[in-house]
Write a structure and sequence with these properties.
heterodimer, A: 207 residues, mainly alpha, Four Helix Bundle (Hemerythrin (Met), subunit A), B: 98 residues, 4 helices, 72% helix, flat
Chain lengths: 207, 98
Amino acid sequence: MTDAAAVDHAHGVEPAETPLTPESWGKLGMWVFLAGDAMSFGTLLAGYAIMRGNSANWPVPVDVLGISLTAFMTFLLICSSVTMVKGLDAIKNDDQAGLVKYMWLTVGGGLIFLALQAYEWTHLINLGLHLSANKWGDSLFGTTFYIITGFHGMHVTGGVIYLAVIAMRGQKGVYSATNWNEVEIAGLYWHFVDLVWILVFTFIYLL
Amino acid sequence: MASASHSEHDDHHVNYMAIFWWLLALTILEVLAGIPQASPAYPQLLKGALLVGMAVAKAVLVALYFMHLKFEKVALGFIAMIPLVLCVFVVLMVLPDF
């Protein structure tokens, strides 16, 4: 027995369970994806910091972008994270109607966020903040603003579609107190999008 | 294995509303700290430290409680930490450009 185990080990056969073996492989997969995605945002924000730090005429973001609308958008995403966890809690208690209600509320939060971002972009473009030039100073200010908030907005768009699919599957009665793994995994993605916005709001708008 | 992990799962009860109020309060404080221009009385370094500190606190709250990292296996926490370490590395690598 011991010999056999030793032989297995010598041949590089993995033990059946490792410290990484999760309750759900899908959850582990989502975390690995999010870690990679966090690197995308991390490098974008680091690049932003370097460009801003090296610039002689970087505008004061608050003066150009304003805060009140984006503060409300931050509030909205936080609320939608709460409805997300409430939805997961509901289905863990076998409350299918509660799951569907909270999932659609979460989708609604995401949609309002996107609508406000579209309004904000239109407003800023009309004011003269363009991708390659603007009237306040360094042209990279506009470039980095649109790329970073746009990259995040695409994540919100993807999340809205993802959560809408979960909500529709919930309506079909796919999930139950013994089957909520997919809901939890979708929630991880949505909370990550919220988490990233917290950082974007701070670094792009407030600092 | 499956049954053990199941019972583990139902043990923790997070007061999500408490997390929500913390996140809201920190957001309001952040806006209050972000509006005033940096001045000799309110140096940029202090402003930056306050804002980054509060943002990190909010991000940690979301990860620990909404994403349940606090109740997961330690290995999952390590996966979540990898990008943080790499981002610090990225910043340090380009610092000589300043």
